[in-house]
Amino acid sequence: MTAPTPGRVRAVTWWLADWWYATVWQVRSLGPTTADDYRSGDREPVVVVPGIYETWHFLRPLMEALHDRGHPVYVVTALRHNQRPVVDGARTVMEIVESEDLRDVVVLAHSKGGLIGKYAMTHLDADGRLDRMIAISSPFGGSVLARFGLLPSLRAFRATDPTLAGLIREVAANSRITSIYGVVDTLIPNGSELVGATNVQLPVGGHFRILGDRATRSAVVVAVDGPGVRAPGGPHRRGR
User: Fold this and answer.
1) What is the dihedral of CA 131, 194, 63, 95, to 10 degrees?
2) What is the pLDDT of residues 10-32, one digit of tens each?
3) How far apart are CA 30 and CA 239, in angstroms?
4) Spatial separation of the C-alpha atoms in residues 61 and 91, rounded to whole Å
5) Could you tell me which residues come within 8 angstroms of residue 37 by beta carbon, excluding any fewer than 6 positions away?
6) pTM for the complete prediction?
C-alpha cells in the first residue's frame, strides 16, 4: 500500500515549496548555531550526513528532535557541501566516528548522505561501530534525472555509476536501514524504496522540505527510539 499520487496542481505547489525550503536553509546556514551545540546527551550517538550541495543545517529540525530526546548529535563538518565522491565522503564519516570513539551509532542522512552511509556500513565499518541508518529521500536506486546533470558530481547518481551500481548489488546492510521518503520527490522521481529495508512513505512532497515536516520528525524518532511514537500518515513496510 502506498500513499495516493497527488494531483498536478498540488505537485507543482510542492515543487515550489521544496525549493523555497532549500533556499531558506541555505541562508540559515549562515546563522550563529554551531555543530557543537548538539553534542551533549547520554543515549545512542547520531552522526549526520547531509546531501550534495547541502550543509548540515538542512537537517536541523531532525537533529533538534533527537537531541531533545537525549541523543548526542555529531556533524561531519569536514564534508562541507558534500561534493566529493561517495567513497571519500564515507571515509570522512568514519574518521569522525573513530576519532570520537563512537559506538552503536545511528546515521541520520539525507539524499546523497544515504549512499555515503550505506557505503560506510558495507565497506568501512570493520569494528561494527555503525548500528543502523535512517535515510531521508536517498537515491538508493539512482535518479532518472542524473543523466541530465552537467557536472560529474550529479551524473554520479546514475544507476550505472560504478559506485552506485555496486551499492545496489550489496544488500546485506539493507535490513539495518530505514528509508523515509514522500509521494513526490523533485530530484528522485523514481523514489527511494530500498529492498530489504524498512520503507516509510509519508504524505509529503519534495526532496528538501520533507526534512522539516512534522510527519518526518515523528518517523525519525520512531526509527531511532522505537515504536512508542508513531509517525502520522504514511505506511511502514518492509521492502519487497
Assistant:
1) 50
2) 666 766 777 677 677 666 666 65
3) 38
4) 26
5) none
6) 0.85
Closest CA to 164 of 207, 211, 114: 114
pLDDT in tens, 34-66: 788 899 999 999 999 999 998 898 899 999 999
Q: Are 113 and 51 in contact (CB under 8 A)?
A: yes
Residues contacting residue 169 through CB under 8 Å, at least 6 positions apart: none
Structural contact between residues 116 and 109, judged by C-beta atoms closer than 8 angstroms: yes
Owner of C-alpha cell 525519525: 220
pLDDT in tens, 70-106: 999 999 989 988 989 999 999 999 999 999 999 999 9
Q: CB within 8 A of 80, min separation 6: which ones?
A: 55
150 in Cβ contact with 124 (< 8 Å) = no
In the block, which residue shows the cell 531533545? 68
Q: Which three cell numbers, joined as nine digits, stand for 160?
A: 550505472
184 forms bridges with which residues in the sheet?
205
Rounded distance, CA 161 to CA 167, Å?
A: 10
What is the DSSP pairing of strand 73-75 with strand 105-110? Answer: unpaired
